[in-house]
From TrEMBL:
PROSITE patterns: AAA. It comes from Glaciihabitans arcticus. GO terms for molecular function: ATP binding; ATP hydrolysis activity. This is AAA family ATPase. Residues 171-309 form the AAA+ ATPase domain. Belongs to the AAA ATPase family. SUPFAM superfamilies: P-loop containing nucleoside triphosphate hydrolases. Residues 64-88 are annotated as: Disordered. InterPro entries: AAA+_ATPase, AAA_ATPase_domain, AAA_lid_3, ATPase_AAA_core, ATPase_AAA_CS, P-loop_NTPase. It comes from the Bacteria. Residues 64-84 have a biased composition (Low complexity). Keywords: ATP-binding, Coiled coil, Nucleotide-binding.
Length: 419
């Protein structure tokens, strides 16, 4: 491919940075044109956002193999479904080719080699972000107390309605997931949809708000109506405090108060049936949610989703290191040093370490895998991001828990000697 065509592809990628297929096509052409280092750089951008992407992984592996290997005719593009995984690579052969020993990827893999499962979902209605989830709570690494609470408070009664009714357990109402940002609340919500074999409909404030009078309330109604049509369905409100904030707040406009009123009516099923409709929500600040939304029959069950525990951190680190060239990674050390890191923080650590190894590889003209020095350096740069949340949570736990609804939060803060 000519330099002009490569330059045109580069311009297209800059204009459409989130177009995965376009970026991978550009990476493929860079590799065929004899620029494996640039191909690795473009493929790594995809892997940062889509860990384990098979086409990007195959490109990285082919580009890495071409660095230091004798010149050869360009290899055809790897078929998406035939990309080799790390376990299938002949590491001894690569060592002989590039004269640099590549150590096993992990010093410690743990009992579960698979780590956290990354699953695909089928788009049913992309415009409304409607999917049919295949993941379940078994795919959520660690967080056993959270999964136990979700099963007891929400899933088991739904699976056994007759027994639940015999014990006076209402099947109405929703589930509110709360906790610090970046700790997997949305991932857990998707897993719940998979457990219920239900459509998953994700809603944010941008789907509801409209500048014209009455349109926001109509949008709220339409979202619920679409969910009822797709039942069984999980309707998930992300950052629900933005949509259902306290109506008494001085910051709340009259239009937003009407939106909250409409949401209350929809959850109560006034004029409609909510059979087969499961309403979930997530928020970092449940104390900012309107109290009426937390009453029985609405979001009357709350589950605290905390920063990942040790098994979860190990699983998350495996996911975000998967598909990248790595050597000698001591997961036990990383897990021990990342207490208090959110899932998003851990992803940032792996991405930062990857950038360090990539720049070193570019400078050396050959791929140098991510090692523990890169990750230790990344930990110096990336600190836990939940400090401000902990401070606000501490104030609520100390002075706003008369009803006991935040007892789980109080227990957590006490365990960390923050209360």
């Amino acid at each position: 491919m000519s330099d002009d065509l490569l330059a045109g592809l580069a311009a297209a990628v800059r204009a459409l940075p989130d177009d995965v297929a376009l970026r991978l096509h550009y990476a493929e052409q860079l590799l065929l044109a004899g620029h494996p280092t640039d191909a690795i750089e473009q493929s790594t951008v995809v892997l940062d956002k889509h860990a384990g992407h098979p086409d990007a992984t195959a490109l990285v592996q082919r580009a890495a193999a071409s660095l230091g290997a004798p010149p050869a005719a360009p290899a055809p593009a790897a078929a998406p479904n035939t990309a080799p995984d790390l376990d299938s690579i002949d590491w001894d052969q690569h060592e002989r080719e590039i004269q640099s020993p590549i150590k096993p990827p992990f010093v410690l893999m743990g009992a579960d080699e698979s780590g956290l499962v990354v699953t695909e979902n089928d788009d049913v209605d992309p415009e409304m972000r409607v999917t049919r989830e295949t993941m379940t709570l078994a795919d959520v690494g660690g967080l056993e107390p959270v999964k136990k609470r979700i099963n007891e408070a929400f899933l088991e009664p739904m699976r056994h309605p007759e027994i639940a009714k015999a014990f006076g357990k209402s099947l109405r109402g929703g589930l509110l997931l709360y906790g610090p940002p970046g700790c997997g609340k949305t991932f857990v919500a998707r897993a719940i949809a998979g457990e219920l074999n239900a459509h998953f409909i994700s809603v944010t404030i941008s789907d509801i708000l409209d500048k014209f009078l009455g349109e926001s309330e109509a949008n709220m109604h339409n979202v619920f109506e679409r969910a009822r049509e797709l039942a069984p369905a999980v309707l998930f409100f992300d950052e629900v405090d933005a949509v259902g904030g306290k109506r008494s707040s001085s910051m709340q406009s009259g239009g937003m108060r009407n939106v909250v009123n409409q949401m209350l009516m929809e959850m109560d099923g006034i004029g409609s049936e909510n059979d087969g409709l499961f309403v979930l929500a997530a928020t970092n600040h449940p104390w900012d949610v309107d109290a009426a939304l937390l009453r029985p029959g609405r979001f009357d069950r709350m589950v605290l989703v905390l920063p990942p525990d040790e098994p979860a951190r190990e699983a998350i680190l495996k996911v975000h290191l998967k598909g990248r060239p790595v050597e000698g990674i001591d997961l036990r050390e990383l897990v021990a040093k990342t207490d208090g890191y959110s899932g998003a923080d851990l992803q940032h650590v792996c991405s930062t370490a990857g950038e360090k190894a990539m720049m070193a590889s570019i400078a050396a003209g050959e791929v140098r895998p991510i090692n523990m020095d890169d990750l230790r350096s990344a930990l110096v740069d990336v600190k836990p991001s939940i400090g401000s949340w902990l401070q606000s949570a501490r104030n609520v736990a100390a002075y706003g828990n008369a009803s006991g609804q935040y007892d789980d939060l109080v227990d957590f803060l006490k365990s960390k000697k923050l209360l």
